[in-house]
Amino acid sequence: MTSLPDKTERKLGLVIDLDTCVGCHACVISCKGWNTENYGSPLADVDAYGENPVGTFLNRVHSYEVTPDEGTSQLVHFPKSCLHCEDAPCVTVCPTGASYKRSEDGIVLVNESDCIGCGLCAWACPYGAREMDGVEKVMKKCTLCVDRIYNENLEPEDQIPSCVRTCPAGARHFGDFNDPESHVNKLVLDRGGMDLMPEQQTKPVNKYLPPRPKDTLGEIDILAPLLKPVAEKPDTFIGWLNKQLDKI
Amino acid sequence: MHPSPSVIIFTALSGLGFGLLAFLGLKMPDVTGVLAFIFFVIGFGLAVGGLISSTFHLGRPERSIKAFKQWRSSWLSREAITAVFALSVMAVYAIGRIFFDHDIRILGVAGAIMSIVTVFTTSMIYAQLKSIPRWNTKLTPAYFLSLSLAGGALLAAQIKICLLLLLISGIIQLLVWIKGDRALALSGTTIESGTGLGTIGRVRAFEPPHTGTNYLLKEFVHIVGRKHSAKLRLIALILMIGTPILLLSLSFSYFLAALSVISHIAGLFISRWLFFAEAEHVVGLYYGKR
Fold first, then answer.
1. In this complex, is the C-beta atom of B70 within 8 Å of any C-beta atom belonging to chain A?
2. How far is residue B57's CA from residue B7's CA, in Å, rounded to a whole number?
3. How far does Cα A187 stand from its chain's mean position?
4. Superfamily of domain B5-286
5. Reported ipTM exceeds the 0.90 cut
6. What's A140's domain CATH number?
7. How many domains does chain A have?
8. Which residue among A7, A191, B72, B200 has the highest number of C-beta atoms inside a 10 angstrom radius?
9. Which of residues 126-145 of B touch A (CB under 8 A)?
10. pLDDT one-digit tens code per residue, B2-27
């Protein structure tokens, strides 16, 4: 059924820390690896060793330059995957019921054997979280590693999404947003976690933590007098040379 | 959006076909026997041909029967159901008209209404998408319905109604373009809202995720054809609206009517190509391409 559940028992999702992400793309690779070898059809690469390789990815890292009105620009690495929206437009448009949001944990999934590959769910997603597989011709998307997080054959520390487990910088966090005590909720509260494209009214579950403000060095009071230039206007040999060169 | 030929052919032809079937259901023209056969063959040919074309853009067309399930939430599913319903009702009505010279009025009217409803459901597949601000407006169903009816009237040789409907379609088409050009800016979705970084400053896409292309860029970020959009808009308007109005106003002859139909359909294809090619999906913002 492609109608959305009124509410979900748990609200599993990710917090992505834009302050910490170093843009190494390790999450992209581990996601591609896990989701090619496990649940569902593999994430295909077409023309992988040819002129125009194109592949299916469930997670991609962009990099943005942000320029404030005053001060220097900064570079922000920006991992983007499915946000498992509460009002997921990708689910309601699906004509077959292949696309659905689970009422138990809020994960948005695709039942690949029901997918006709019409692509309408990818049209409806403003974030570009869904990609049509180039070989299987069905829609692929982030499963929040549903085959890891409930998999008791794995070590407890591995029962989290592959991207979170892999991130060497600790920029990705996984948890239940319905639990007010969860560390993802605390992070959102402490760091001002934000929604992407709130005006699209999708109510994303995943939150992004903005980069912390750059710290600025205050005036160095004690040493400042000692560090003052000896002469404001140099009148030594350098000063003379400077003047002569200006004249030329 | 990528202007995929299968979707352009589908929306254009099935719109024309259902438009014609709507007029036939209302006994405009009041035909029976061989003449009715010819009209219904054209109507069904266009509607069904369009629908078959639409299956070519499916990744897994062999599963398309599953698309009838989710009518409660999905406009695509509703379209599939209304299309089959409209065609079935019209088929029974057509058999009566062609072979038995019998007019089952209730079926004719019901078929006409269902044909128009089918075109409406098609238009809502596009109009519902917030992610494509240019389409996310009431003008999208108005654009599809007015052109379907104008084209249907043209094929059904209802000259007076056709002239009026062409005029209305032309005005709606102009509104679609004028309002559409501002839709993305008015939607409030920007690279700043998309990244949440607008509170720090201006955002510029610095480095894309991959050096190559991907499904998203190919499907949603079509910017090549926009270069000639002003010229193409003028050509579409002249062929789709202007020429038929001029020719039909002169005097009625089969030659002029046929010329009007050819001109209208050529213009319709250009208009529909622009409908897709000019639509900006907001995901393009993440790639700095808009």
1. yes
2. 7
3. 15
4. Formate dehydrogenase/DMSO reductase domain (1.20.1630.10)
5. yes
6. 3.30.70.20
7. 1
8. B200
9. 128-132
10. 888 999 999 999 999 999 999 999 99
